[in-house]
Amino acid sequence: MQSSDRRIKVFSGNANQDLAKAICRELGLPLGDSVVKTFSDGEISVNINETVRGIDVFVVQSFSLPKVNDYLMELLIMIDALKRASAGRITAVIPYYGYARQDRKAKARDPISAKLVANLITAAGADRVLTMDLHASQIQGYFDIPVDHLKGVPILSDYFKQKQLSDLVAVSPDLGSVTRTRDFSYKLDAPIAIVDKRRPEANVSEIMNIIGDVKGKNVILIDDMIDTAGTIVNAAKALKEMGAKDIYACCTHGVFSGPAAARIKDSDITELVVLDTINLSSEMRDLENVTLLSVAPLFSEAIRRIFNNDSVSTMFEE
């Protein structure tokens, strides 16, 4: 991949170094030498310990637990350091884009934090963004730089294809995930059902109705993210009451905050499949019904294509 005039380097903040190292292994590259630490007063310090002049640089960083805001600042400061070190092109590789749920004004005086974060990344000096399964696709338009948007559905659907489950129904846990569920169901050649819910307040959901036939079926719930797990666990309970057999669930981003681990452990979910865009806590990793799949091959291929100025979108063409 390297040549005398164009070279590539991958750096990482502290959010998910395991994923960054896995991406580097796929690319056959060492992880870039950098140190990101915090002073005693909470300020973030970044040291880039190798030359990046004229180099195509990729910075891997998610905005996730346990230090969402610190990880965002780490990315911004790393981009600034690389820009001032004359990097040729800087791509912010953000497997999980935090603040994506704050993408619109739902009521008066709400912030649009997803747009603010996009502005910060652009102002810091990023030339492009590589991310996966944004909570709302229109967030791509919040950036004034190119955005490559990867999909987690192919990885998840390939996993369930290998399980060869019979009598399958793909279930959307809410109306907002219907498009993703339809794409997932198409790949598995399965019908879909929809959980009709309402959300009286943030991180609280109430199941209202099940649209579709799930009685006597094996069902797979699919969502872009699971946070406190209230939605997915309540949906699984409602599906079980409607006569569903085994209940599987999958998502791209395992946020898993607050009571998520306890809820999933005590739920009707047979298996929960999650991608490693976020570094899972030991509590989640220890759950017997949680399966972790890697996005490293997909991100490494996207990075390879960006470096070579090839199409990224063709990765997802049937």
Indicate the topology:
Elements: E1 8-12, H1 17-27, E2 34-38, E3 44-48, E4 56-60, H2 68-84, E5 89-94, H3 113-124, E6 128-132, E7 147-150, H4 153-163, E8 168-172, H5 178-188, E9 192-201, E10 204-211, E11 218-226, H6 230-241, E12 247-254, H7 260-265, E13 271-275, H8 282-285, E14 290-293, H9 296-307
Parallel strand pairs: 1-4, 4-5, 5-6, 6-7, 8-9, 8-11, 11-12, 12-13, 13-14
Antiparallel strand pairs: 2-3, 9-10
Question: What would you say this structure looks like, in words?
Answer:
A seven-stranded mixed β-sheet has the order 10-9-8-11-12-13-14, with helices on both faces. The N terminus is likely disordered. Strand 13, helix 8 and strand 14 form a beta-alpha-beta unit. It is built from nine helices and 14 strands. 30% of the residues lie in helices and 26% in strands. With 318 residues, it is of the alpha/beta class.
Which features would summarize this protein structure in a list?
5-stranded parallel beta sheet, alpha/beta, disordered N terminus, 7-stranded mixed beta sheet, 318 residues
Structural class: alpha/beta
Can you tell me the overall shape? globular
Uncertain residue ranges: 1-5
- Average pLDDT confidence is 93
**Helical segment count:** 9
- Note the gap between the termini: 27 Å
The quaternary structure here is: single chain
How would you summarize what this structure contains?
With 318 residues, this protein is of the alpha/beta class. Helix content is 30%, strand content 26%. The protein is built from 9 helices and 14 strands.
